Amino acid sequence: MTMTPEVASLRIGRTVRSVEDAMDELIARSGELFAEMARARIATANAAHAGQRPMMRIAAMQKNLVAARSELVRAHSDLSRLAETMDIPVEECPENAVLADTAFEDAA
Asked: What integer pLDDT is reported at residue 49 of this predicted model?
């Protein structure tokens, strides 16, 4: 079965948006987990160091999720430019999706 470039573009675009939404949801849920862990430590009157190691692991995971989300933004931008070179109309694509490699470090 042959697929036209336009159909491929539509399918890829739909899937990219779906992955972007899923990654955003995962970032949000990991933030909720982190908050619940901190609240549990307070509510149970545990020492400040109790649960610190798993919290550090969750924080590291969140950093990696944000980095992965940034890569997805870059991939989306690259795909948009590729579609434009193929004269395929693109909609709802990030206009300024090029992130500096140090964007995350600069925000820290």
From this structure: 84
